[in-house]
Amino acid sequence: MEFSRNIYFLLYRNRRIIITWLIIIIAIALGLVLNIDKEIITVAVVIFGIIANAFTGLAGIVAMVPFIGPLIIKVLSLPVFWLLNAMGYYISVIAIKKGYGRDVVSYRMVTVIFLVGFAVGFIIAKLL
Questions:
Q1: Whole-number Å distance between alpha carbons of 47 and 63
Q2: Under 8 Å between Cβ of 24 and 16
Q3: Each residue of 51-65: pLDDT tens digit?
C-alpha cells in the first residue's frame, strides 16, 4: 500500500516533466517515422528541452535515486564548469589578438567572479 502511494506521489509531483519527456519521445518517433532529417530532430528536441526545462527536470529525477543519482549528476555537471572556463579562455585569446586587451581584463574578472560564485553555490547546495 505504502509503495503504490509513493509511486503515485512521485508521478503526481513530476507530471509536467513526465509529460514533457513523453512529448519529446513522441516527437522523435514521429520524426524518424516521417524520415525527417536527424539533425533537424536533434535541434528541435534541444530547443524544446531547454525552453521546457526538460533536462533540468530529468536531472532532478535522476538525482532522487539513492547513492547513484547524485553521483551521476555530479559527473554531468562538473564538465559544465570546465566548459565555461575553457570558453572564457578561448574568447580572451581571440579578443587579445583583435586588440581588446583592456576589455579582456574586465571580462576575465567578471568570468572569474561568475565561476567562483558557481563553485561556491555548488558547495553550499551540497552542504544543504
A1: 23
A2: no
A3: 888 888 888 888 888
